[in-house]
Write a structure and sequence with these properties.
Radius of gyration: 21 Å
Largest sheet: 6 strands, mixed
Number of strands: 19
Helix content: 25-40%
Strand content: 15-25%
CATH topology of the largest domain: UDP-N-acetylmuramoyl-L-alanine:D-glutamate ligase
Number of domains: 3
Mean pLDDT: 93
Shape: globular
Strand order of the largest sheet: 7-6-8-5-9-10
Distance between the termini: 24 Å
Low-confidence stretches: none
CATH class of the largest domain: Alpha Beta
CATH superfamily of the largest domain: Mur-like, catalytic domain
Length: 412
C-alpha cells in the first residue's frame, strides 16, 4: 500500500493514508510527505475522490462504511495496482509463495544496471535505499503479484514469474485446489510465463570465509554464469535463475545480468544483519511460512557452522498457525533454541485459529528447548541474560516485533 501511495504521489496526486499503526516511522512515506492518520478520520474520507482499500480491511470497517454511505469511489489495492500497471508498455509480475520480493528486486537491479530505468513496486524495502517504490520510465513496470484475495488477477503481465506454489492464504482460498486455480488464471492473463525449469542447475555452491555464498548457474544449453553474492542465503540461487530467465527474455546481455545480480544489495528483513544493543550476531528475516523458516535456519547453519541457532519467532495470524501447525513445529524444530513471541493478529481474532502459546505447549510435549513471552519487556529481560557470542540470533516473522525493537533502539 505504501508503494502504491508513493507512485500516486509521484504522478502528481494528493495522497494520505489511514492505518492502525499510524505512528510507525515508515521512512519512504515520510520522505515523500505522505501523512498517515489514526483511524477513523472521516474528514479525510470526505475530502478524497478515491478510497483505496487493502485486503486486510474488513467489510464492517468504520471508515469503509462511511465511504460507502457518502457514495465515494472505492477500489481495492489489487484494482489500483492493475490500473497503474496498465500505463506501462511491459509489466513484469512476480508471483509465488516464496521468493517474490527478492526475485522482483533482482530483476529491477539488473534492468537498472542495463540502463533501462524501470519502475519498481516492491513488497519490502530495498536495503540502503529506504524505499519500496522507484518511479522510472514507462517501458518496464516490475511488481510483486500477491495472490491473496486474487489481487494478482487484476494484472495483465507481459512476463509473469511463478516461483513456487504452496498452501498459503487458506483463510481466503479454503483449499489448495482453489489456490492452484487462481494461479492458473494468473498464467492465462500473461503473455510469457516463467516457472520452474529443472534443466537450469545450481552447481559449485560455496559459503566463503565471511559466510557469503557463490555458485554457478548453468542453463539448458550448458552455458555457465558464475555469481559471487554479497549475501548469506543459498536459497537466493533459485531467485537468481528466475531473474536471469526474465532478463534473457528481455534481451539483456549476460555481462550486464551478472553485474546486476552481483551488485544486488538485498532487501530489508531478508536475512538482514542488524545491530543490537546487547546481542551479538543478530539477523532479521521476514520468514513467516514453515518453508521460509526452514530455509532461514538452514542458511544460518551453513553460514555459521560452529554456532548454535536461536530463533525468536512471532507467528503471523491465528489462521495460518492453525492451518500449518504441524509444519511450523517441524521447521522450527531445526533450531537449537526457540523463543516464541505473541502472535501478530493482523486482521484476525484469536478464535479464528491457534496462537504462539499453542506452539509452545506442543514443543513442551516433545521436550524441545523453547520459551514463550507475551510481554515485550519480559522478552527483553530474557534476551539480556541470553546473550552469547557462540549463538546466532534469528528474529523471524512478518509481524511487528522488529519494528517494536527498532523503536526502542534495541535493534537498529
Amino acid at each position: 500500500m505504501s508503494a502504491l501511495a508513493m507512485l500516486l504521489k509521484k504522478e502528481g496526486n494528493n495522497v494520505c493514508g489511514s492505518d492502525i499503526n499510524y505512528n510507525n516511522d515508515i521512512n519512504c512515506l515520510k520522505n515523500n510527505k505522505i501523512c498517515v492518520f489514526k483511524p477513523p478520520n472521516y474528514e479525510k474520507i470526505k475530502e478524497s475522490d478515491v478510497i483505496v482499500v487493502s485486503s486486510a480491511i474488513s467489510e464492517n470497517d468504520k471508515e469503509l462504511m462511511f465511504a460507502k454511505t457518502n457514495n465515494k469511489k472505492i477500489i481495492s489495492r489489487g484494482q489500483l495496482l492493475g490500473d497503474i500497471s496498465s500505463h506501462y508498455e511491459k509489466t513484469i509480475a512476480i508471483a509465488g509463495s516464496h521468493g517474490k520480493t527478492t526475485t522482483t528486486a533482482l530483476i529491477y537491479n539488473i534492468l537498472k544496471v542495463a540502463g533501462k530505468n524501470p519502475t519498481l513496486h516492491l513488497g519490502g524495502e530495498l536495503a540502503f535505499e529506504d524505499t519500496n517504490c522507484i518511479l522510472g520510465e514507462k517501458e518496464y513496470f516490475i511488481t510483486e503479484a500477491c495472490e491473496y484475495k486474487d489481487n494478482f488477477l487484476f494484472l495483465k503481465p507481459y512476463i509473469s514469474v511463478i516461483t513456487n506454489i504452496e498452501p498459503e492464504h487458506l483463510d481466503y482460498f479454503q483449499t489448495f485446489k482453489r489456490e492452484l486455480l487462481s494461479f492458473s488464471k494468473f498464467e492465462s492473463n500473461s503473455k510469457i510465463v516463467i516457472k520452474e525449469d529443472k534443466s537450469y542447475k545450481i552447481k559449485n555452491v560455496n559459503h566463503r570465509y565471511n559466510g557469503f555464498v557463490s555458485f554457478d548457474v548453468i542453463n539448458k544449453n550448458n552455458k555457465k554464469i558464475h555469481l559471487d553474492m554479497k549475501r548469506y542465503e543459498e536459497v537466493i540461487a533459485k531467485d537468481c535463475i528466475y531473474a536471469i530467465r526474465v532478463c534473457k527474455e528481455l534481451g539483456i546481455r549476460d555481462d550486464l545480468i551478472k553485474l546486476g545480480i552481483e551488485s544486488y544489495k538485498g532487501v530489508k528483513k531478508r536475512f538482514q544483519k542488524v545491530n543490537c544493543q546487547i546481542l551479538k550476531n543478530v539477523y532479521v528475516d521476514y520468514a513467516h511460512h514453515p518453508t521460509e523458516i526452514q530455509n532461514a535456519i538452514k542458511t544460518a547453519k551453513k553460514s555459521f557452522k560452529n554456532k548454535k541457532i536461536v530463533v525468536i519467532f512471532q507467528p503471523h495470524t491465528y489462521s495460518r498457525t492453525k492451518l500449518l501447525f504441524k509444519e511450523f513445529i517441524k521447521s522450527l524444530s531445526n533450531a537449537d533454541e526457540i523463543i516464541l513471541y505473541k502472535t501478530y493478529s493482523a486482521r484476525e481474532e484469536e478464535c479464528m485459529g491457534l496462537s504462539e502459546y499453542d506452539l509452545y505447549k506442543e514443543f513442551l510435549k516433545i521436550n524441545k528447548d523453547c520459551f514463550h513471552f507475551s510481554n515485550i519487556n519480559c522478552l527483553l529481560e530474557f534476551l539480556k541474560e541470553e546473550n552469547s557470542n557462540e549463538k546466532i540470533y534469528l528474529f523471524l516473522g512478518a509481524g511487528d516485533l522488529p519494528d517494536k525493537l527498532n523503536k526502542i533502539s534495541f535493534l537498529t
